[in-house]
């Protein structure tokens, strides 16, 4: 059970963030750089994100009066400026999610810095300020990521799964707040089926997926925790699924004692509590490993699980 809960504002039992990764068709161009233009069916599947789903999601948020966080690759910010401007107009946060949804684990330190800077520039042009938070594409946080986030002035990360409450990522360069989630609270594992993306999950009913999300929410509320979910508009912004999400939000609001907030607001509150001495988070010193562990024979190769 959680023994180190954050004192949330106004006595709330739980902080809740329904975060969206608005990847759109960036992932298709990255995976198929030479023939993405031929894959029109998958283009339409992914472009549902900015063209249909996000306007639907924003209307729901307006109706419920909540502000949330959209993580977006910089290329999507540039490609769909009208959608991003509406997100900003409605008072939501736009956070960093790479430039073309590239994996940091497959890039050198300088390459990762380049894409981090390029994504930040795209967001800055729309919001007028630097992004404060980052989620690594594919959750692929590299051993260089923390130092680069600190270098560029980020205050939080949302890529890791090492706790159920906020904690600190620290290196010699400084520290950021980690706002963790986990795979059960990502809609892709419940719904995503795409031959081109090579992700073919058994598609669950909206009620079955909501059951998983709500069970995690109830546990977070009982224990004074943090509930961060990862959604994709092209997946969960479709009519039956989004109708169930609307009902879920209504159930959560009616429950009471829940603080719906953007990820930036949550991170700033955690920082404030740490400074005041009312919250003492666990600290992860990074990198955890630097190179292969010495226990492995020098000629050992990867053998899988």
> Which term fits the overall shape?
globular
Characterize the largest beta sheet: strand count, sense, and whether it forms a barrel: 5 strands, parallel
Measured between the Cα atoms of the first and last residue, the distance is 29 Å
Q: Fraction of residues in helices? A: 40-55%
β-strand amount: 15-25%
SSE sequence, one letter per element: EHHEHHEHEHEEEHEEHEHHEHE
Mean pLDDT: 96
Going by CATH, what is the homologous superfamily?
Glycoside hydrolase/deacetylase
SS class: alpha/beta
The name CATH uses for the topology is TIM Barrel
Low-confidence stretches: none
The total number of structural domains is 1
The CATH class is identified as Alpha Beta
Number of E-type strands? 12
H/I helix tally:
11
Protein model, in words:
The chain is globular. The protein has a single domain, classed as TIM Barrel (Alpha-Beta Barrel). A hairpin with a 2-residue loop joins strand 6 and strand 7. 42% of the residues lie in helices and 15% in strands. With 305 residues, it is α/β, with parallel strands linked by helices. Strands 1, 2, 3, 10 and 11 form a five-stranded parallel beta sheet that branches. Strands 4-5-7-6-12 form a five-stranded mixed beta sheet, with helices on both faces. Strands 8-9 form a two-stranded antiparallel sheet. It is built from eleven helices and twelve strands. The longest helix has 25 residues, at 40-64. Helix 2 packs parallel to helix 4 and helix 8 packs parallel to helix 10.
């Amino acid at each position: 059970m959680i023994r180190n809960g954050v004192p949330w504002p106004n006595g709330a039992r739980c902080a809740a963030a329904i975060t969206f990764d608005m990847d759109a068709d960036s992932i298709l161009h990255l995976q198929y750089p030479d023939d993405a233009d031929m894959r029109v069916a998958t283009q339409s599947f992914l472009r549902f994100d900015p063209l249909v789903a996000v306007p639907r999601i924003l209307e729901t948020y307006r109706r419920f009066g909540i502000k949330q966080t959209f993580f977006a690759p910089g290329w999507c910010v540039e490609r769909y400026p009208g959608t991003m401007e509406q997100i900003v107009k409605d008072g939501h946060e736009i956070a960093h999610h790479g430039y073309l949804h590239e994996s940091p684990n497959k890039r050198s330190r300088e390459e990762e810095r380049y894409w981090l800077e390029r994504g930040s520039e795209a967001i800055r042009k729309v919001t007028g300020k630097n992004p404060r938070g980052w989620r690594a594409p594919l959750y692929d946080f590299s051993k260089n990521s923390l130092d680069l986030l600190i270098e560029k002035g980020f205050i939080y990360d949302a890529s890791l799964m090492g706790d159920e409450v906020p904690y600190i990522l620290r290196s010699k360069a400084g520290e950021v707040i980690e706002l963790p989630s986990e795979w059960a609270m990502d809609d892709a594992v419940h719904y995503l089926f795409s031959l081109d993306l090579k992700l073919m999950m058994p598609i669950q009913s909206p009620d079955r997926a909501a059951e998983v999300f709500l069970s995690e929410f109830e546990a977070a509320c009982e224990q004074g925790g943090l509930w961060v979910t990862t959604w994709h508009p092209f997946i969960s912004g479709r009519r039956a699924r989004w109708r169930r999400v609307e009902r879920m939000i209504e159930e959560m609001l009616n429950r009471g004692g829940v603080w719906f907030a953007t990820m930036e607001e949550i991170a700033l509150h955690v920082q404030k509590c740490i400074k005041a001495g009312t919250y003492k988070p666990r600290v992860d010193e990074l990198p955890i490993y630097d190179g292969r562990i010495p226990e492995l024979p020098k000629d050992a190769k990867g053998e899988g699980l």
